[in-house]
């Protein structure tokens, strides 16, 4: 029993040590083996990017997305490293024969490297005694090498090719578990270093060349196949680019592990000259700009398989991703040369200058920036609990901002607060959803300046209501644009202006007492607004992103532009000709599916704003016209048919009483062929 316990304990300890020694690369290979278990023993599943020769032991994220760098992949089943197939047997049941390093090059199909080893007289060395690690370029890697460089190597085989191959070797055996992220390994060429990176997604790189087949053990070492030919590195980032030493307390010539996204001279030439001059005069901003292009880690392009956020030395984050073979920064393809390896990191050349928030401020027009700041800073400390509806707050610029308190929002002029206001010893910080725009003109001045409300203003004048737009107060106005009256003749407008009482009632139905900005209306429910006409306006608000025609702030209210005339249900119209005209202006639209993240069914509504941003809907109640009834035996069924021909509504209602229980069917037919069950 003691022997059994001891044996079990020993196995447990060994398994723990084995797990401790495993690396991200080993774990990814193990997952690939599990995915391919139906293919037989020791088979690994790889993803190959469609249209390329690139193959990956991939992460779960890439596997289930069936894509790498946004490009579709196919699944390949191959023998896991170290195993072979046998004819007629399922899977890869055979262990690959162990040979010396030279023989192993042939086993892993790195035959070009094997041939060059013979050509350069390296063969005898890697067949003999020793313990080597050979990072062997694949055949495809040699084909990718610049033809002139390759020709120069091969033509001078006794020196250059031999040295180049020696640079791919380390004089001790290093398995992938020994290749730690950020380490350097001393090569066998002049003791120059190799930069090793071992990423959490299982990718292992040597001078940014990816290991595509690792851990092929040999009698005198190990072979790792890599996807490119690597060249000797002797320069720092500081050496590669021209950087003023005075710019940074961080010297780019010192040891470290950095990634620099280096804008070219052309990239800086794209900047506005005034902005560039301002940056050059401000060393702190220039320092921030440099740090925003630097990561405190080495990110080789081959390790990036999907978008990931990284913190820059400036403190802000940028997203590094990929689109096929292209690297992206914040979703934009701007890297045109990648993986310039240095002794202390890697450089990717970009054709745009990245702007951190601090430098975006520098790039703004300073007079405009001053206005913005003055309008957002109050002369006294006001905390959230001190704000009340109707309060006026004075800014540093001497302007006054109005406070609006709603059931679910607290707003300053057109901007509402985001939860999480902070109080400090010398002030308070309130986060706003948008820039505050203080009102500077009355509703009348605003509508005249806009130029899209000429007909509405003429109707207000005809009804004797122009002073309402000019006088002090706090109103919400749903102002119909000229588009709402499209197709009306001068005679039609004269008819509309002829009944002053009806016109006044209609226009006052567009005004509500109180200032209601978009964010102040609750989403997904009906907001009841009491109009100056006396009836309630039923507003359904769907909020996604703000549009320019909403929340036009005035000193005496707020204006929301709408594209139809509103009509109160309780206004009698005695003039049949005026009634026909109103039916042409007021549009009823059946909404089945709404592209504003909401499904509205079984309502006839008046569409005021339909867009992918702010959406205002106001329920319109259709007044019953004269009804003709014909009674036939049996219980009651009511059918109403409304036909709209060529976009100009005319209404005919036919009611028949026939067999069946009572039900109502409304059909709207016309330009949109929309029906209401």
UniProtKB/TrEMBL annotation:
Boundaries of every EMI domain copy: 40-94
InterPro entries reported for this sequence: Adhesion/Biosynth-related, EMI_domain, FAS1_dom_sf, FAS1_domain
Coiled coil residues, start to end: none
GO terms, biological process: cell adhesion; extracellular matrix organization
Gene Ontology CC, one term: extracellular matrix
Example of a GO MF term: cell adhesion molecule binding
Keywords in alphabetical order: Disulfide bond, Signal
Record bears the keyword Mitochondrion: no
Secretion signal span: 1-22
Domain FAS1: 98-221, 217-354, 353-436, 440-566
PANTHER family recorded: PERIOSTIN, PERIOSTIN-RELATED
Name under which the protein is recorded: Periostin, osteoblast specific factor b
């Amino acid at each position: 029993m003691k022997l059994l316990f001891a044996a079990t304990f020993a196995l447990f300890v060994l398994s723990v040590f084995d797990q401790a020694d495993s690396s991200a690369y080993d774990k990814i290979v193990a997952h690939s083996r599990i995915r391919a278990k139906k293919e037989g023993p020791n088979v690994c599943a790889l993803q190959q990017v469609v249209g390329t020769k690139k193959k990956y032991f991939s992460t779960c994220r890439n596997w289930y997305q069936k894509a790498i760098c946004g490009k579709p992949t196919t699944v390949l089943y191959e023998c896991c490293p170290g195993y072979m197939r046998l004819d007629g047997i399922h899977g890869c049941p055979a262990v690959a024969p162990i040979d010396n390093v030279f023989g192993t090059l042939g086993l892993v199909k790195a035959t070009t490297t094997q041939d060059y080893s013979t050509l350069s007289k390296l063969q005898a060395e890697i067949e003999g005694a020793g313990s080597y690690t050979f990072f062997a370029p694949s055949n495809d890697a040699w084909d990718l090498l610049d033809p002139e460089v390759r020709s120069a190597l091969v033509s001078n085989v006794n020196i250059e090719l031999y040295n180049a191959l020696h640079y791919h070797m380390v004089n001790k055996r290093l398995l992938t578990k020994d290749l730690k992220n950020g380490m350097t390994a001393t090569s066998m060429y002049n003791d120059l270093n190799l930069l090793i990176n071992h990423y959490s997604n299982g990718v292992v790189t040597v001078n940014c060349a990816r290991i595509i087949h690792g851990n092929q053990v040999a009698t005198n070492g190990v072979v790792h196949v890599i996807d490119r030919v690597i060249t000797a590195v002797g320069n720092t980032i500081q050496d590669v680019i021209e950087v003023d030493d005075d710019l940074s307390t961080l010297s780019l010539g010192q040891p470290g592990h950095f990634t620099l996204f280096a804008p070219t001279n052309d990239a800086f030439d794209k900047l506005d000259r005034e902005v560039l001059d301002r940056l050059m005069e401000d060393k702190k901003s220039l320092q921030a700009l440099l740090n925003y292009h630097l990561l405190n880690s080495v990110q080789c392009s081959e390790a990036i398989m999907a978008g990931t956020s990284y913190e820059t030395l400036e403190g802000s984050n940028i997203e590094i991703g990929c689109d096929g073979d292209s690297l992206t920064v914040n979703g934009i393809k701007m890297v045109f040369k990648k993986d310039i390896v240095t002794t202390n990191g890697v450089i990717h050349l970009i054709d745009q200058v990245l702007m951190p928030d601090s430098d975006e401020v520098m790039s703004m027009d300073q007079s405009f920036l001053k206005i913005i700041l003055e309008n957002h800073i109050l002369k006294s400390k006001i905390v959230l609990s001190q704000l009340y509806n109707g309060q006026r707050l004075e800014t540093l610029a001497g302007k006054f901002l109005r406070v609006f308190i709603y059931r679910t929002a607290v707003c300053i002029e057109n901007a509402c607060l985001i939860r999480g206001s902070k109080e400090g010893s010398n002030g308070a910080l309130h986060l706003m959803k948008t820039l505050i725009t203080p009102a500077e003109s009355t509703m009348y001045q605003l509508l005249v300046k806009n130029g899209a409300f000429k007909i509405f203003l003429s109707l207000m004048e005809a009804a004797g209501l122009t002073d309402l737009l000019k006088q002090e107060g706090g109103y919400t106005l749903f102002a119909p644009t000229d588009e709402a009256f499209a197709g009306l003749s001068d005679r039609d407008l004269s008819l509309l202006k002829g009944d002053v009482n009806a016109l006044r009632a209609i226009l006052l139905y567009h005004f509500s007492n109180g200032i209601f900005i978009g964010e102040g209306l609750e989403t997904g429910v009906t907001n009841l607004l009491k109009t100056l006409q006396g009836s309630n306006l039923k507003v359904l608000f769907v909020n996604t992103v703000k549009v320019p025609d909403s929340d036009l702030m005035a000193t005496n209210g707020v204006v929301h532009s709408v594209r139809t005339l509103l009509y109160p249900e309780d206004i009698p119209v005695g003039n049949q000709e005026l009634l026909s005209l109103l039916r042409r202006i007021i549009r009823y639209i059946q909404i089945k599916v709404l592209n504003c993240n909401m499904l509205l069914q079984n309502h006839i509504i008046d569409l005021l704003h339909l867009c992918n941003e702010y959406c205002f809907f106001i329920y319109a109640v259709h007044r019953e016209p004269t009804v003709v009834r014909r009674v036939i035996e049996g219980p009651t069924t009511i059918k109403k048919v409304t036909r709209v021909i060529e976009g100009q509504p005319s209404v005919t209602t036919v009611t028949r009483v026939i067999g069946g229980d009572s039900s109502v069917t409304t059909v709207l037919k016309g330009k949109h062929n929309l029906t209401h069950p």
